[in-house]
Amino acid sequence: HVAAAAAADGKNIVRRKLTGYVGFANLPNQWHRKSVRKGFNFNVMVVGESGLGKSTLVNTLFNTSLYPPKERKGPSADIIPKTVSIQSISADIEENGVRLRLTVVDTPGFGDFVNNDESWRPIVDNIDSRFDAFHDAENKVNRMNIIDNRVHACVYFIQPTGHSLKPLDIEVMKRLHTKVNLIPVIAKADTLTDEEVAVFKKRILADIHYHDIQIFEGPRYELDDDETIAENNEIMSKVPFAVVGSNTEFQNADGRQVRGRKYPWGVIEVDNEEHCDFVKLRQMLIRTHMEELKEHTNNFLYENYRSEKLTSLGVAQDPSVFKEVNPAVKQEEERTLHEQKLAKMEAEMKMVFQQKVAEKESKLRQSEDELYARHREMKDQLEKQRVDLEEKKTRIETGRPLEEKKGRKGFSLR
Ligand code: GTP
Predict the structure, then answer these.
(1) Ranges of Basic and acidic residues compositional bias (predicted)?
(2) 145 part of a folded domain
(3) Domain encompassing residue 367
């Protein structure tokens, strides 16, 4: 039985109920199978001063010894790096048949110098070069297998001072926040008491707010169900996450084997939400928001970078592309444009005509003047001839001989 329902949102979409099973309810499963076959990739950057436990936390997060134990830097000047060097380590990890290619971008040397003014530069350059590589790959003829090396999340380690953010933290965060999803964490939170952590978190958030630093805020889907929204709010309420890292297992007071750090007064459990926010950080990064982080990187951060880059290269964006086209308005616009063109042509023709008339008139006036002048000249000549003839006539009539005139003329010459 097919029942038509009301048109949705005023558009001509009719809702129908199906009588039997068609099969498109299986679409999510298709997507699931395809994604699992393809595998996933996730690139996370860790930024923070040396010794804050970055390597330990990454190993704890993915429950793997991704980072081999590091050689400690010696006192000799030639083995102390002069700048922040960027290193990336990739590993294929698998859980219940789902493959994840994890890449960790580390920033050794950050904050290690007497002058750390430019510490952020190699990090920003590295993020930009990853965007550039993706942009180049997108513009190639073959775009089938683009490898996404962009940084999807940046875990920023804050020293557990208990005071507030350091100027270096603020400077670096300000440089990074438009390019990556910033996730601030308080490193080695086991060195602070619960009250200290609470006060420190408030100060950090106040600093972040004061300096207009944009940190990752999770998805803002109004369409999500209440449970998902509550879960998201719960995770976000822990930012900046106070974390403790360790891959070493100990027996706790109940006799359970737990990952943690052992102190004379007891064991701090990494995976216990009562002890630290590690679980919430892992939940956000891996279990619930990994896709969101990747989407936000692609849709906002990369898009911003791309349009800024194209604008700086002189490629102007056509605002009309984003205007919704209304056929009636467009037709009216075209008509006005056509009328304007006609009016302009008419004015031009009138001008040319007037110019031609003026030229003709001046030519006519000139030839009229010439004619008058010639006429006057001829009239003068005729008048002169008339006077001569008149004189001759009078002389003949009075009978004066012509010779007399001649003789008199000869006499006068003598
Ligand atoms: P670099 O490689 O120099 O950048 O250091 P890192 O930030 O990677 O620190 P790493 O993980 O090597 O840890 C430095 C030291 O801190 C080690 O001795 C760790 O055992 C210790 N450590 C790591 N995480 C924690 C933690 O959560 N709490 C405490 N108290 N110590 C930790």
Answers:
(1) 376-406
(2) yes
(3) 329-413
